[in-house]
Amino acid sequence: MKLLVVGGAGYIGSHTVRQLRRAGHEAVVFDNLSSGHAQAVPDGVTLVRGDLLNPADIRAALDAHQPDAVIHFAALIEVGESMRAPGRYYRNNVTGSLNLLQAIVDTRKIPLVFSSTAAVYGTTDAVPIPENAAMQPESVYGETKLMTERMIHAFHVAHGLPYTILRYFNVCGAAPEGDIGEAHPNKTHLIELACLTALGQREKMMVFGTDYPTPDGSCIRDYVHVQDLADAHVLAVEALHAAHARGQAGQATYNVGLGHGFSVLEVLDAVDRVTGTPLHREVAPRRAGDPPRLVADATRIVRDLGFTPQFTDLDEIVRTAWNWHRTHPDGFRR
Ligand code: UFG
């Protein structure tokens, strides 16, 4: 199968390109390189520099490369920034996705796999969270992902667009080979920050709240390894494409997580063990908008797609992240 991977030069996109090729597929990357890195695109994979905000760019890429399916990662992803710059987020994430959807149905009507997020649920009492939990995003970022999910469904109903939506929980880690990994311009994610602190790039780790109603008082999250998440995309696009070939316009939405959580303090303990450097920790007030516990009910993707995460041990997950950051202390600019 030939895939157009929109946002394929980014963190999750680049790992997915690798896993797609390992599964015998061909990938073409479409990326505006606003946060992605050309170095993350492997030799032999075409990189089309284009922007979803320019509809002609994506139409030209679909025409030129004639893919069998599209995987759409391209988005701005920072919760805090989305609250300060909502216009940028709605324009980039919603209008950009709309341009992509319109181009797909106007040209080829091929299957679409979309990157969504557990942020669409907001604070919920459901633990673990099933896909049919109430959706009340608490950030503009989560809102843009939910709006895009709804647009995709409307295009499915109106135009028969086949789709699978994957709602990621806390994506982390790096390729075990250590050559690609997380390199966002602004760092907010717990494991990445802890690794950079262990490297001495930051003085200490802030623990945002130890007064939550959890066993050790810190927040609990479901940490899914980026390579397992990449494999989830391969499974999703293969299933969607097979159904499409049988004349079915499939539609499905899946949580992607391990189905169990770790607390902030447990993650920091794991980083201490892996790096051999006990981090200086400071308890800080709660961070606005952090729910106490976000854990996926991942039974649906296991049942339907046979999703089998390989990275279930926290130390092993952290080791892959540490290996990447240790060898690339400045990301792709080392
Ligand atoms: N945390 C700290 N100190 C830090 C950074 C984070 O204590 O320096 C805590 C946070 O308060 C939170 C936990 O570590 O309790 C995880 O925080 P991250 O910033 O790593 O991730 P989030 O859970 O906030 O968000 C991530 C993605 C979202 C997605 C969500 C789903 O960024 O897009 O996971 O679970 F929606």
UniProtKB/TrEMBL annotation:
Name used for this protein in its record: UDP-glucose 4-epimerase
Signal sequence, start to end: none
A molecular-function term among this protein's GO annotations: UDP-glucose 4-epimerase activity
Family per record: Belongs to the NAD(P)-dependent epimerase/dehydratase family.
NAD-dependent epimerase/dehydratase domain segment(s): 4-257
InterPro entries (UniProt xref): Epimerase_deHydtase, NAD(P)-bd_dom_sf, UDP_G4E
Keyword Transcription among UniProt keywords: no
Cofactor or coenzyme needed: NAD(+)
Subunit and interaction comment: Homodimer.
Chemical reaction(s) catalysed: UDP-alpha-D-glucose = UDP-alpha-D-galactose
